[in-house]
């Protein structure tokens, strides 16, 4: 598709109705685009002029004082009008020199008809030409869209879609993906040129929030321009399709072509993700074997997952659980819709894992998704920290998914310790379960995502006999709980805050929003029930552990 659908002053002068027109100023502005034609005789023209308007006038405004005449021209120039056509012989006989000088200074085309003309013929001719061009543009866009639709219905060939865009524009096309190999159409002459384009995308486009949502322009070396359009699937930018233009070009039509192409590519990617999801369901058994601790051969386990054998390089593994929690009212009216949204979330999760370069196994069980991530250790950087950072970003993206859905959900997540052996991943999943239990039970631990962040709760969750923990809490805090239940004095809460603030009465009163005298009365009651030695180190440790265990038991 040619980009020559734009009408410029240069082409307007070649129209039959402009045979008697003469350009007297602004010769350097002949490439100004003409979008519409207006007839204006008033002096306050700014509110009625839009960009690329060609103005027709008999020059009545030239009868005003010099400053008003200049103001008329300045308004047209500020509004980025395409040009001005003045008819001589009806209202005026010539154009003042200061008007001609101003038009030349601003490269603003100034045309004169030295004999009266019918403005209606000019508007009909130019408007008809513009409408015909727009009609032709729409026909070409429709043909372009049909070709893309045929490709997306017949195959999952990304290169075929890029080739159609190249045929319609003739410019270099770049496909930069975070889930598959980059592609070029046509293929660059050298590997260095392809690497240069890839490096430019990584440096300038990736990480640019605006470029990840909307079409963006990036100047390139050699007076070139990169026009980039994001390819978005399930709210996540998985790739970019770009076009390299030689210098400034009319962009409106090209942006439309890129938008059509990006939507077709999104359809292909989404289909490939769902096909992959269907294929990878067979790997559920591997996670099930890990959870039941049935994997003993490390090499066999890695082979089933498709990661590098242990003897060829170290791989870091981490296991985690993501769980969706819906309001009780959401589970009954639209169960089918919830299942569809859970499936979309699973596909998006897999896409995010690919985007961050993590090999993975996923298994959905009810509202839970079990995740096993693998990442090869590199020579540079803190590999464990990089793996955790990637996991953290993935969970943050997933939490944003629940906003605005027909059945909004809360997302809970927990991940165990990073380990170098896949056969130890049953421990990581068990730790992930503990992280989720602690983060849901303890307010201060709500943001905890990794096992090492739950601190002393590792010890509390490691106690196998819950009855023993219940007995310990009852022994340490039972009397206070009984008194609170009968008198509603909040002694357990007061003790908890008092210990947190290291026995500071002033800070404790402020944190509880109570008067100091009220706090003194409660502390007296604590002394009476617990004994005056409750701040002694050994006794205090027992009380603090019991306070930490309370949320887990409830």
Automatic annotation (TrEMBL):
<dbReference type="InterPro" id="IPR051448">
    <property type="entry name" value="CdaR-like_regulators"/>
</dbReference>
<comment type="similarity">
    <text>Belongs to the CdaR family.</text>
</comment>
<protein>
    <submittedName>
        <fullName>Purine catabolism regulator</fullName>
    </submittedName>
</protein>
<dbReference type="Pfam" id="PF17853">
    <property type="entry name" value="GGDEF_2"/>
</dbReference>
<dbReference type="Pfam" id="PF13556">
    <property type="entry name" value="HTH_30"/>
</dbReference>
<dbReference type="InterPro" id="IPR012914">
    <property type="entry name" value="PucR_dom"/>
</dbReference>
<dbReference type="Pfam" id="PF07905">
    <property type="entry name" value="PucR"/>
</dbReference>
<feature type="domain" description="PucR C-terminal helix-turn-helix">
    <location>
        <begin position="491"/>
        <end position="549"/>
    </location>
</feature>
<feature type="domain" description="CdaR GGDEF-like">
    <location>
        <begin position="339"/>
        <end position="438"/>
    </location>
</feature>
<dbReference type="InterPro" id="IPR042070">
    <property type="entry name" value="PucR_C-HTH_sf"/>
</dbReference>
<feature type="domain" description="Purine catabolism PurC-like">
    <location>
        <begin position="11"/>
        <end position="129"/>
    </location>
</feature>
<dbReference type="InterPro" id="IPR025736">
    <property type="entry name" value="PucR_C-HTH_dom"/>
</dbReference>
<dbReference type="InterPro" id="IPR041522">
    <property type="entry name" value="CdaR_GGDEF"/>
</dbReference>
């Amino acid at each position: 598709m040619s980009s020559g659908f734009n009408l410029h002053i240069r082409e307007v002068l070649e129209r039959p109705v402009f045979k008697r027109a003469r350009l007297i100023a602004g010769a350097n502005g002949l490439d100004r685009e003409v979008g519409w034609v207006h007839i204006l005789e008033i002096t306050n023209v700014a509110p009625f002029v839009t960009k690329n308007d060609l103005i027709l006038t008999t020059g009545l405004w030239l009868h005003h004082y010099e400053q008003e005449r200049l103001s008329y021209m300045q308004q047209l120039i500020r509004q980025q009008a395409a040009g001005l056509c003045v008819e001589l012989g009806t209202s005026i006989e010539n154009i003042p020199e200061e008007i001609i000088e101003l038009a030349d200074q601003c490269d603003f085309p100034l045309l004169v008809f030295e004999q009266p003309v019918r403005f209606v013929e000019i508007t009909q001719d130019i408007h008809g030409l513009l409408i015909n061009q727009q009609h032709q543009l729409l026909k070409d866009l429709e043909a372009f869209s049909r070709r893309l639709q045929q490709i997306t219905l017949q195959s999952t060939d990304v290169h075929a879609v890029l080739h159609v865009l190249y045929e319609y524009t003739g410019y270099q096309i770049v496909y930069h993906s975070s889930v598959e190999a980059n592609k070029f159409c046509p293929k660059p002459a050298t590997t260095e040129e392809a690497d240069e384009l890839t490096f430019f995308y990584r440096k300038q486009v990736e990480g640019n929030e605006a470029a990840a949502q909307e079409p963006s322009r990036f100047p390139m070396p050699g007076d070139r321009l990169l026009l980039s359009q994001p390819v978005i699937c399930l709210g996540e930018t998985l790739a970019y399709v770009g076009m390299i233009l030689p210098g400034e070009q009319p962009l409106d039509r090209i942006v439309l072509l890129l938008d059509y192409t990006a939507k077709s590519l999104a359809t292909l990617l989404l289909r490939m993700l769902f096909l992959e999801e269907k294929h990878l369901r067979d790997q559920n058994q591997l996670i099930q074997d890990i959870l039941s601790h049935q994997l003993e051969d490390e090499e066999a386990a890695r082979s089933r997952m498709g990661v590098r054998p242990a003897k060829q390089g170290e791989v870091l593994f981490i296991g985690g659980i993501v769980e969706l929690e819906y309001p009780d009212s959401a589970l009954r009216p639209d169960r089918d819709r919830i299942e569809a949204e859970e499936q979309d979330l699973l596909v998006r999760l897999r896409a995010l894992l690919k985007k961050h370069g993590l090999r993975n196994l996923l298994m959905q069980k009810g509202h839970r998704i079990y995740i096993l991530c693998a990442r090869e250790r590199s020579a540079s950087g803190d590999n464990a920290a990089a793996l955790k950072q990637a996991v953290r970003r993935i969970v943050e993206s997933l939490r944003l998914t629940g906003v605005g859905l027909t059945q909004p959900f809360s997302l809970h997540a927990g991940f165990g310790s990073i380990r170098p052996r896949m056969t130890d991943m049953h421990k990581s999943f068990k730790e992930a379960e503990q992280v989720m239990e602690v983060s849901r039970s303890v307010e201060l631990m709500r943001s905890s995502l990794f096992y090492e962040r739950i601190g002393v709760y590792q010890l509390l969750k490691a106690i196998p006999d819950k009855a023993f923990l219940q007995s310990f809490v009852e022994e340490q805090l039972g009397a206070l709980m009984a008194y609170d239940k009968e008198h509603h004095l909040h002694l357990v809460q007061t003790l908890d805050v008092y210990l947190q603030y290291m026995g500071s009465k002033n800070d404790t009163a402020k944190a509880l929003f109570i008067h100091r005298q009220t706090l003194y009365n409660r502390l007296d009651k604590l002394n009476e029930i617990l004994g005056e030695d409750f701040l002694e180190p050994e006794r205090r440790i027992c009380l603090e552990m019991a306070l930490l265990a309370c949320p887990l038991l409830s």
